[in-house]
């Protein structure tokens, strides 16, 4: 889930790459009230929701975002997970004459992204060269939504109830009769007040272009079942300047959205037409339109991929993995969502024919998609709204270039994978994700799944004063309930093919199916059946098949309706045929031609990725690793590696390459790749040929699914394997104590795998260098036997950590999963604090105790955090900002740090403002690697600061004084959490123990010669927040219980530390003394799986009815999550934990404890969350 707020630009950062794609996910500035549903008419926001896809829209163009929650506002399938977080249209052109002078240049950009640069309403008075256009009153502009069958609906109709639930953002069970009646009232009002005079479409029965309801003319278009219409304009220069730093063009834009109530292909799409009318009084040149700009989120927003298809004029987004947590909650694999440009801008082209207003226009053509820029959110800087350079960057994007401000020498996109790697293009990531052919997102040099943005652009074209242009596109979904994320892409493209083939109508669609058999290992039998009952006057049909890659020969298949060719009954308009052929190596596509008395209808790509060869066989299944009973079998609860061999059944064609995608949720998206040739009829075996699986809690079989890709063929397969019963006992999964002889014990996790094999011996883990890579060995100290040697360190959740004498040894590297260990306050004005107090917000996910009133002698309670720009209170966003998206981890890890508050005498550099020196009341120190009481390795760091209120003093600043950050921090509710200026922790050039490096830098600062070039940033944008420290009534007031932490306060930050060569740790190979639970009484079992990501299960048994509390704690003893707090009946119980705290936020990876309190019975266990 991501929630958007208004972006605050960081003027310190350069505008680089594609500035249009913002990295933050915060709530945007809104001008409407989400709780708009009432009986008051008319409306300013509504939903299009007539079929299997639904989304929000507002009368100023605000689109795709849920106004109630700020989350994804387009759902597909309807009523399930979100697929679009935000979208809009963007345009850009060159204007050389205007009623809004613009000395910066001729480029002008407008539309809707996270900022809405348009206002509701039509242009009441069109502009002329002498007079500017005049906008209508935006407060009198409404949004109109009609249904063709509105008069047949009642308040008890399930469709009306669902409509009311969605419009009010409630469950259908909460819909009141008044809510349902309001839906009907809205439809009636819009029908009776249809603004045909402003351009809303209607059925013009007599062709006189006048709306005459008295003559039977009604609202609507294209036989649509639901239509939404509204109009907006760009005449408010404050809005265009706020985002793009430029003046308006002078456009009126009429938007029409329509859909069809059907379960077929049209029911998976919504159609949208945007009609642009130039009412500026002057021409616009070199214009482009992005229809649309989109921030799609297919379920969870952090695991998406994007793509485009220039043959389909399609930009799309899909999940990077077979399983998405949000879709999984509805029992579905992830969907795919796309924007298909059906009709681009109109340009002159002698001899061609174009579409405009659903009419054919001779000697013109429609521009296709001319570019599809995209990017990955985490690589982008926050956009610098309000600067002219932003308009230039967007204009470049619309023209298919990277979003920089250089329009004279724009930088091209390049292909990130495939045969054209590195070559310039306006269509990056235009490969086929299903087959892996071409430039596919997530492959090659393209980044891994994450947050994506995309655009579908068309141009250039020009608009004279008074000209009208229109673009039509479809928002199309695709999902395969029996498939995966790639099946969804295939289904999406099939839907788009059909929609494009039928546009501008959406009526007749053939229903075509096929069946493949393999009578021998050299031949394929293909049977095709086409249901053409939606067509009249069919006289014949033919399928044309051609290879999607490679040069294998194509073939054709005539279709018959005679009852003799696998077609059905004679004359029933179900056509068919069958053909036998030799196996083909690569997939084929099939095109359908339908001949009717009125002409031929062509449907390209009716089939795609047709596999015309047998699948390889999976054989010799065997367990090669398990984290439970060591019996080479799949047991209940345990994690295993199930190996296999592959046999190529095709006797004509070799298999050149194989990729397997494991759908098991706990496999962490395991992918197996094999690039060695398997000859015809050959069998291959490889160490990587094994699936990571988890045994079920009960039953005698395990059924799992996976995707097989080979030679660009793709198929989802299912296998069933036997499961042996095993009662693991209460100690399975326990983490044993690690005793450090030298080095840190935090990275070694000895976990009980098979309690029956425990020896009670002591084992030594020793680290050493091996070819410049840290490795480890294991020795049984009781016998002297070397048990393991030269073992790699791995954070891969699928790594087969070795099991010895019933103990699984998981040895990790903090650099692969970086983080902090603790935030502490170790001293205040009264001296050392024993034990230390907390120094950060444990309640916000920080690995810290929540500080108490004992933290200070005074009244303040202080939290280490990052500067607040809007919704940045969580530990996750703290990490993101102080490490600059992780780039600082290599400098942070391995050390501890202190911030020591003093009475004065220290200096900092205002690096990002006027590069002057400023006194500060603190010192920053690196205090070495796990040696807090040894000053011999401490060195003082150089502070840089950002003086947010620009008063020359380090302080918190009052309300309204800050230039960048907000006044109140969102780490806690209310408006009473002020925070300090920003601190940057800089490593000096001289890191010898003591203050030499710091003093040398300060000397240069005071002399005016300091440039900062010798320092290295370690942590950025750190602040101290005074938790509930604004004591004015009401806050924010600027009255604080403490202006800054008192002198003598020492905050300590402990980072994770790696093991080093020579480190030695000892493990005792027994569970130790613990309660001996009697069977059939109270018992708490070890969680499974363990370690886990993202979900684990906890079982416990109760001997009688009792009050039960099951809680999760972190290593600091803080309660993270309450899983059970109620009376329960006797018997066995099971609870799942998804790694989230009580606030719903995901917690960090590491060691956790869970404790069961059932009456007088108390038991705790350990578990490990990995990421």
Q: Tally the structural domains.
A: 6
* Distance N to C terminus: 18 Å
How confident is the prediction overall: mean pLDDT?
A: 91
Shape: globular
The largest pleated sheet is described as:
9 strands, antiparallel
Uncertain spans: 3-40, 377-383, 1072-1079
Helical fraction: under 10%
The percent range for strand residues is 35-45%
What is the radius of gyration? 33 Å
State the helix count. Answer: 9
The strand count comes to: 62
Structural class: mainly beta
Looking at this protein, list some descriptive labels.
9-stranded antiparallel beta sheet, single chain, Immunoglobulin-like, 6 domains, disordered N terminus, mainly beta, 62 strands, 1171 residues
Task: Give an overview of the whole structure.
With 1171 residues, the protein is mainly beta. It folds into six domains: 45-503, no CATH class; 511-611, Immunoglobulins (Immunoglobulin-like, Sandwich), CATH 2.60.40.10; 617-725; 734-813, no CATH class; 820-1055, no CATH class; 1083-1169, Sandwich (Immunoglobulin-like). It is 8% helix and 38% strand. The chain has nine helices and 62 strands. The strands form 14 sheets. Strands 6, 9, 10, 11, 12, 14, 15, 16 and 23 form a nine-stranded antiparallel sheet that branches. A hairpin with an 8-residue loop joins β7 (123-125) and β8. It is globular, with a radius of gyration of 33 Å. The protein starts with 44 loop residues before the first strand and ends with a strand. 48% of the residues are buried.
Topology:
Layout: E1 45-48, E2 54-58, E3 74-75, E4 82-94, E5 107-111, E6 119-120, E7 123-125, E8 134-135, E9 144-147, H1 158-168, H2 177-192, E10 226-233, H3 237-244, E11 251-259, E12 269-278, E13 284-296, E14 304-309, E15 314-319, H4 325-328, E16 336-343, E17 346-356, E18 359-366, E19 374-376, H5 388-398, E20 413-414, E21 424-425, E22 452-463, E23 468-478, H6 485-502, E24 511-520, E25 523-531, E26 538-547, E27 555-559, E28 574-582, E29 588-596, E30 599-610, E31 617-626, E32 639-647, E33 658-662, E34 671-674, E35 683-684, E36 690-694, E37 701-710, E38 713-722, E39 738-742, E40 748-752, E41 762-770, E42 773-780, E43 786-792, E44 803-804, E45 807-811, E46 820-828, E47 831-838, E48 862-866, H7 875-882, H8 889-892, E49 896-909, E50 917-926, E51 939-946, E52 982-987, H9 996-1007, E53 1016-1026, E54 1050-1055, E55 1064-1068, E56 1083-1084, E57 1096-1102, E58 1106-1114, E59 1119-1128, E60 1131-1137, E61 1150-1158, E62 1161-1169
Antiparallel strand pairs: 1-2, 2-3, 3-4, 4-5, 4-13, 6-10, 7-8, 9-10, 10-11, 11-12, 12-23, 13-22, 14-15, 15-16, 16-23, 17-18, 19-22, 20-21, 24-25, 25-28, 26-27, 26-29, 29-30, 31-32, 32-35, 32-36, 33-34, 33-37, 37-38, 39-55, 40-45, 41-42, 41-55, 42-43, 44-45, 46-47, 46-54, 48-53, 49-50, 49-54, ...
Helix pairs in contact: 1-2
